[in-house]
Give the backbone structure.
Amino acid sequence: MKITVLKFILIFLWSSTALAALDYSQDAIEVNLSETTKALDSEEITPETWKMLEITLVKEDGDRLDIALLRPNWWIKKVNAYVGSTIYLDMPEMGAVGYSQVLSIKPTSADSRNSKKGYDVVTGKFTHLSDKVYDLYFEGTKDPLGVTESHPIWSNDRNGWIRAGDLNVGETVQTKDKQTVLLKKIKRYGKHRVYNLEVHKSHTFYVSELAILVHNSCFPDSKEIAKRLGTNEKTFHKQVKAEIKSDFPKEMKKINSTNPDIGVSKDGNILLKNPKTGKVSDTGVPIDAYKR
């Protein structure tokens, strides 16, 4: 069975049946296009130059992450990946950091050259169990949006990306054409299988029938960046972010933002993003240079 995603999808708690049926040669998601890590996103995906890897990663807390990745042949060679090998993944935005085992490497029929404008190929599927899941009920629909606690959603009230678990009832969030209001927030009990997607060239999504603006990207929650830099969230916003903004005026001008989101590329470099337009600039400077 083949599923072709033509419009808006729920990327957090998609059904396992639908995800299992993903055909990477056809499946695409409508997104806001933005610059990302040049090494992967500037390269077209073709059956001749890319392959599909199935990987499993067991985290320190015992949580197992099952991963399917589309990667170019040069990347596979660079990390010395082969069936049965152990490779190190550094994808904090996907919760995939640590040594992982390669279960299989297979050919792919994916071809980004066939993608329509505004649609991009799914390059990664990440699935694991989580006990931090919320059902968000918005004005204009009866069906809830199932999200993980840490997933960023754009708040018009606070003019920024807010963790789903930190949204307040009555808060206004951005949709594709207008906005909607959060009416109710319910935390699910127990563990639930959740899903995350990596998309070629694209990191800002509209999900659910309301087309709510969410982020799935190289822009992790500020708490995660603060932890990586050996500081707390308050210090990150007051000192570290201020230093970064001061150090990269040209990049901020390039994306036309005076208060950009701070992200980390797959190569570990600082990314600056205009939160409204989605335009991204790679500074080329490692985020770890700002460690405390």
Summary: The first strand starts at residue 28 and ends at 33. The chain has a mean pLDDT of 77. The chain has three domains: 33-128, 132-187+210-215, 222-290.
